[in-house]
């Protein structure tokens, strides 16, 4: 991680890259990449906090909500001013304009590792360190609509495709799973979830496997990054 720090003023000037145990492991974008949320540890500012960097104005703001545990993963709603913060056990959803909690998702997993928001904004997937993937339909319940026991090791990342009905998970078991996940406009019809493919090819390094996965924004392709220092592209 590259950070420029003014030690006299005790300020972090600019964040270039995020490193484990300092900030969150992910860089998230919203509003054409104008906002970047990250987690700052007590080492730097005296308390755990979620900070949002607004690139257009060069400003950094702290999310004005009490953190109920250590923040693990964050995400913006794709179209509304809603912010998702996951701790090890729960996912809390806040309205940024009204500055209030609007929902809490109960995961029931050992420890949350990653979250992703469906492009429609009403469904959330949660990956965990016990290899479970939870799908939440927020219109139905604060409990998981479906729990998939797909990995024997930690899930490191979950992701939705922007335009195709696809989602994926990556894991330290050196695999990535790809699923069909159809969300219907009819609210009386539940989401359809179908396992499609198990992707292999990465080697284990010090017990770590696939560290990250991301879909191509337009094609049904998945990129994976492994602890073996290899980035792979899987095309259907």
UniProtKB/TrEMBL annotation:
Entry-linked InterPro entries: BOP1/Erb1, WD40/YVTN_repeat-like_dom_sf, WD40_repeat_dom_sf, WD40_rpt
Pfam families in the record: WD40
One GO BP annotation of this record: maturation of LSU-rRNA from tricistronic rRNA transcript (SSU-rRNA, 5.8S rRNA, LSU-rRNA)
Family annotation (SMART domains): WD40
GO molecular function annotation: ribonucleoprotein complex binding
GO cellular component, one term: PeBoW complex
Entry protein name: Uncharacterized protein
Organism: Coffea canephora (Robusta coffee)
């Amino acid at each position: 991680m590259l950070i420029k720090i003014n030690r006299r003023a005790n300020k972090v000037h600019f964040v270039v890259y995020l490193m484990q145990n300092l900030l969150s492991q992910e860089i998230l974008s919203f509003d054409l990449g104008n906002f970047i949320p990250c987690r700052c540890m007590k080492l730097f500012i005296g308390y755990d906090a979620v900070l949002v960097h607004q690139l257009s104005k060069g400003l950094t703001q702290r999310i004005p909500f009490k953190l109920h545990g250590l923040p693990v993963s964050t995400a913006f709603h794709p179209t509304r001013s809603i912010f998702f913060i996951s701790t090890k056990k729960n996912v809390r959803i806040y309205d940024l304009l009204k500055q209030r909690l609007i929902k809490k998702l109960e995961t029931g997993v050992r420890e949350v590792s990653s979250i992703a928001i469906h492009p429609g904004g009403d469904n959330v997937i949660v990956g965990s360190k016990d290899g479970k993937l939870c799908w939440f339909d927020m219109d139905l319940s604060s409990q998981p609509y479906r729990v998939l026991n797909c990995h024997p090791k930690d899930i490191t990342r979950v992701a939705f495709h922007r335009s195709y009905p696809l989602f994926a998970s990556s894991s330290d078991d050196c695999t990535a799973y790809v699923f069909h996940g159809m969300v219907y406009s009819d609210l009386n019809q539940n989401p359809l979830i179908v396992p499609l493919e198990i992707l292999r090819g990465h080697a284990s390094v010090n017990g770590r496997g696939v560290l990250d996965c991301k879909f191509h924004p337009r094609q049904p392709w998945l990129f994976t990054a492994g602890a073996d220092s290899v980035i792979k592209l899987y095309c259907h």
